[in-house]
Amino acid sequence: MFDSLVEVVNEMGYVGIIFLMFMENLFPPIPSEVIMPLAGFSAANGDLHIILVILSGTFGSVLGALPWYYAGVYFGEERMLRLAKRYGRWMTISCDDVSNASSWFSKHGRKAVFFGRMIPAIRTLISVPAGIARMPFLPFLAYSALGSMLWTSLLTILGYILHTEYAKVADYVDPFSKIVLGTIIGIYIYRLFFVKRNDSIKPPSK
């Protein structure tokens, strides 16, 4: 997997980084913790410019957040709850997940978007309650971009600094990325078939 990612970045350049980060936000089989350090390696090699790498990663990340934001805006909490009740088993999202995310966002507001973009566990999910709460688009875009830029900058610089250990990192990242992918699939199967779900629809949070 490591070699495949390197090939995508090397052949597609900045477009490849945007594409990978966009897909990472829609469905994260390959986390940004793998993508951006690899792009940092390429920048250290002189193939790409580190500033443009960071901007490309940020742009792809923000693009990937928009579909989730607009899903929240379009469906609203009540319809999202109905979708979770009907299709949540396949999406591994319960009614409680939707209600809790909306409640958490209502308490922390814009700070939740900014800091959420730097937390792997909720990077994608934070866009949904932001949309449900009808957070104005421009502030959502600004806070998402700032949080994403800090995160992608950190990962890119890490990869840039570790350039001299490229071969050693390759030996580490390839099995790690396979473990991450296997873990995601395993969690999905576990939640799909073994986790008891609470499909009762609670009133939307105010």
From TrEMBL:
The chain crosses the membrane at residues 12-30, 50-76, 140-163, 175-194. Keywords: Cell membrane, Membrane, Transmembrane, Transmembrane helix. Its main location: membrane. InterPro entries: DedA_domain, VTT_dom. It is found in: Cell membrane. GO terms for cellular component: plasma membrane. This is Membrane protein DedA with SNARE-associated domain. The lineage of its organism: Bacteria, Pseudomonadati, Pseudomonadota, Gammaproteobacteria, Pseudomonadales. It comes from the Bacteria. It comes from Azomonas macrocytogenes. It is a multi-pass membrane protein. Residues 30-160 form the VTT domain. It holds the Pfam family VTT_dom.
